[in-house]
Amino acid sequence: MHARSGSRVQEAANGGSGKARGKTYPAVLGKCPTGIRGLDELTSGGLPRGRPTLVCGGAGCGKTLLAVEFLVRGATQFAEPGVLVVFEETAQDVTRNVASLGFDLDDLVRRKLLRID
């Protein structure tokens, strides 16, 4: 498909907006870099900024690990504090589990860059 002048494809390429069902939408979503190697490339710059992202999967697939790494990278690389809410593990269990990966959650909690509830 070629972009024609005045088409929605051309507008999107130029950073304009388009219309769908009478509603105007931005052509490009702002992205929030995760700092996670490979993930930012796969998602074209990170997760959508200002929008919730739902991570689904079965037990043991890595949902908690993704959340912890996202929060650790946000705190250490971007100085953004975060909150981790866990339902089936204690804060101590999560902290102990990710310590082997080099993540010092206790330090981030002490520096008020992370809260685990």
Helix segment tally: 5
- Category from helices, strands and their pairing: alpha+beta
Strand order within the widest beta sheet: 1-2
Uncertain runs are: 1-18
The gross shape turns out to be globular
CATH superfamily of the largest domain: P-loop containing nucleotide triphosphate hydrolases
CATH class assignment of the largest domain: Alpha Beta
Backbone CA Rg: 19 Å
- Fill in the CATH topology of the largest domain: Rossmann fold
State which percent range the strand residues make up: 15-25%
Through-space gap between termini: 49 Å
Question: Can you give a write-up of this model?
Answer:
With about 120 residues, the chain is an alpha+beta fold. The chain has 2 domains: about 30 residues, no CATH class; about 80 residues, Rossmann fold. The longest helix has 16 residues. The protein starts with 7 loop residues before the first helix and ends with a strand. The N terminus is likely disordered.
